[in-house]
Each structure stands twice: as C-alpha cells, then as structure tokens.
C-alpha cells in the first residue's frame, strides 16, 4: 500500500503514514485554512488501510498546536481507527506533549476519553 | 512622565502623518505591541503568528502561556478570515491587536458584523461565559464528536476554545455603525502562568 | 451591549484612526534586529499574497529596511521608560504605499535631522546620487551621518519627498515621525 508522506509547513502538519516501514506520525502544526481539504487524503488513506490493517499499529501525535477545526478532524481520524479491532488489527496512540504545555496534555486526555482505543500520553 | 504636551511642528501636509503620534499613544496606553488592519487571509494569519512568536521568544515567555496566546490568536484571526469571507459588503473591515499588560496578554479582534447576526452571537457568548471550564470541555467534546464540520468550523467552537484556554470570561462589545452593520470587538486575556 | 470591564470602544477608535490614515499595519514597541527581520518577512509575504508588482515590492521593501534600521539606530535608549516605544506602520491607498516610522529622539538632534531631510528634499535624483556618494566617502560617520545615508536611500528608492514631523514631549525629548511614499504604479 502506498505511503502518504507530507512535509510539514507553517500551517499544516507533517504526515507519515507508511505501512511498509511501519511508521505512522502526525506532527507539527495544524492550522490549515480548509481542514477538510487537507485531511481528506489522510482519511482516504486510513479507509484503505483498514481493509487490511497491520496486527499492530502505533500512531504518534507530536503536535505543537492545532486549531479547533483541526481538532474535529483529529477526532475523525481517531474514530476511524477505532474500527480497526473489528478488522483484526491493534492500534496504540502515542500522544506526545511538552510537559509545560498543559493544554496539549489536556487535549490528549480528552481524546483518550472520547475514543476507545489504547491511548498513551507521552511527555517529551 | 505621563503627561505629554504635543506641539505641532508640522512640516508636511500629509494627513496620515498627523495621526501617527496619536496611534502610537493609543497603542502604548493600552499596552499594545502590534495592531493589524486590512486584508485578513491565511497568509496574514501566518505572518502575524510569526511576528508574535518572535516577540514572545525574545521576551522569554513561558511555554504554556505562549501556546495559549498562539492558539487564541489563530482562532481569532481565522474567525475574522471566515467572517470576512462570508460578508459581502464592502464595509467589511477588521482589526487585530495584541498587547501585554503586566502579567497578562491581551488579544483584541474586531470586525464588522451584520446586525441580524448580533443576537445569535450574543447568545453564544453569554452561554459560554456562564460555563465553568469543565462545562466548556464537555461542550467542546460534544460538538466535535457529534456536530457536522460546518458547525465545528464556525465561531461556536472557536469561542469555546478561546474561553477554555484563556481561563477568563470573554469580553465583548457591539458598536452600531448603521442600520445594516455594527462593529464587534472581542477581548481575551491570558494570564501569564 | 457589553460586559467589558472597561469600554472596548477604544478598539473602534484605533480602527477608525487607522482607517483615516490608511494604515494597514502598526507595530509598537522596542525594535531589535530580530523584530526587524520578522516584520520585514511578514510584509514581504503579505505583498506576495497581494500580487504586488515586483518593482513596487522591491522599492517598498528597501524603504522598509532603511526605515526599520533607522528606528533601531535612533530609538531613544535613555533612562526614561514610559512612553518611549517606537512605532512602525505601513499605509496603503489606491495610489501609493507609505512606510512610516516614529521614534523618540533627543531634542538636540532635531536641527541636524531636520536640515538633513530638508536638504534631501531639495535635491533631484542626480543630486541625491551625488549626495549619497559624498556622505559615503566621509570617513567619520557621525550619528547624523549614519542616519543621513538611510534618509537619502529612502528618498532615492521611494522616488518621493520625505515627510516628517516633530512633536515635543518635554524639554529633552520629542517624537519624530518620518513618512516615505512609494507609488503603486510600476
């Protein structure tokens, strides 16, 4: 399956979705003008991935900040991944945060509450 | 040295020039560091963020506060961008200002708004201001879980986030311009940790 | 219809004043090399986004650099801390851009600055070129000499007379505002 790799920019995050090398990461800043346009390829990739997921996938979030529109899409991503267990795969989310950034920590905790997948909060 | 006597030694007939000391004074009095008026686009949002980032870096602002300031700035600026997009009257104008007063960062944004939108917005603001931080978190979670994107992309989610992150009530003002539009100003205070 | 602790209508006032003076951006504070770079790149980026012509953009940019560096060099750096911040603003109308700087200066500098600018304004393009060379060749750069080069450059690059004013603050200090106009047309 083809990897989705996007370099980070000033307003869009770095995306690494690479099944072959087992690397999955969303990092940097997310404040695109049109979140749907930006994240659609990510959602599409995930749909495809879910057709035959890995036994174990670890998705790392290392975000500096994200706007509220992005927060909705991030939840969409997590909710899509919730269905992975039905397809016979496992998923672990690693939510990295700067320990001095209380809002980022809290966001991780909130997402952990909203979805029923393995969620790890990782102070950087 | 707070009282200043300004005498005019006017060597020019440029109208703009005479306002500069006044603007500087107004900005200085209210502890502003930056004010922007004009086109609001994604590009400008990025630029303003960049200037502020540099400034806060120089001032060695604490991480948590810095992040709050950026998050709130982005929400304010992108709110303006979205709003201006929707408004098709040529009187649409907006202003963004950021300042620091002792231990507090203050972000102001102002934009024109059609009068028929005022009560809806005011209701949102009143509701948000009546909620505790916990309640704001719950509402935020509910909206992103359930609502469609247009709703979560709109002012509601942004304002909730601003209130949640700043930890203060949202202060606002509507100033009538004419029968069609008013000028809406929003003030957010972020206390330094 | 407000719950502000103090009236927010002053935002309106600043906005109105900025509109009246055709300003699109104002930065108030202490200027350093770093802030200068950031403000410059912000404006450059905005110009790119607006699709401003290369020629005009370059002129505005050059004038901005001089203007910002002038502020850095000449902003008041004495003991007074109240009311000494500088201002840098950009204005735009259909016909031209204005690059404006304002900073506190010592009153004893006023005459020198004023006569330099008046001199610059009295010259045509060739005259300016000659003056620029002359000032450059001077081995001792006095404080005003340093500013002199910047002012000359601003006049040359903007292609217009420089406009200025001094507003007295007290016995020792005044506020110096300088405006350079650059035509919008390529």
Fold blueprint:
The complex is a heterotrimer of chains A (124), B (193) and C (186).
Chain A: E1 4-6, E2 14-18, E3 23-30, H1 35-49, E4 56-66, H2 68-82, E5 90-97, H3 102-114, E6 118-123
Parallel strand pairs in A: 3-4, 4-5, 5-6
Antiparallel strand pairs in A: 1-2, 2-3
Helix pairs in contact in A: 1-2
Chain B: E1 8-10, H1 15-29, E2 32-37, H2 42-58, H3 63-86, E3 94-101, E4 104-114, H4 118-130, H5 133-146, H6 149-153, H7 155-166, E5 171-176, E6 181-191
Antiparallel strand pairs in B: 2-3, 3-4, 4-6, 5-6
Chain C: H1 9-20, E1 23-29, H2 33-50, H3 54-74, E2 86-92, E3 96-106, H4 110-122, H5 125-137, H6 143-158, E4 163-168, E5 173-183
Antiparallel strand pairs in C: 1-2, 2-3, 3-5, 4-5
Summarize the structure.
Chain B has 193 residues and is an alpha+beta fold. Chain B has helices at residues 15-29, 42-58, 63-86, 118-130, 133-146, 149-153, 155-166, and strands at 8-10, 32-37, 94-101, 104-114, 171-176, 181-191. Chain B contains seven helices and six strands, in the order βαβααββααααββ.
Structure description:
The complex is a heterotrimer of chains A (124), B (193) and C (186). Chain A has 124 residues and is of the alpha/beta class. Chain A contains 3 helices and 6 strands. Chain A has a single domain (4-123), classed as Transcription Regulator spoIIAA, CATH 3.30.750. Chain A has a 6-stranded mixed β-sheet, with helices on one face. In chain A, strand 2 and strand 3 form a beta hairpin. In chain B, helix 2 packs antiparallel against helix 3. In chain B, 52% of the residues lie in helices and 23% in strands. The radius of gyration of chain B is 18 Å and the shape is globular. Chain B has 7 helices and 6 strands; from the N terminus they run E-H-E-H-H-E-E-H-H-H-H-E-E. Chain B has 193 residues and is of the alpha+beta class. Chain C has a single domain, classed as Histidine kinase-like ATPase, C-terminal domain (Heat Shock Protein 90). In chain C, 50% of the residues lie in helices and 23% in strands. Chain C contains 6 helices and 5 strands. Chain C has helices at residues 9-20, 33-50, 54-74, 110-122, 125-137, 143-158, and strands at 23-29, 86-92, 96-106, 163-168, 173-183. Chains in contact: A-B, B-C. At the B-C interface, strand 1, helix 1, strand 2, helix 2 and helix 4 of B face helix 1, strand 1, helix 2, strand 2 and strand 3 of C.
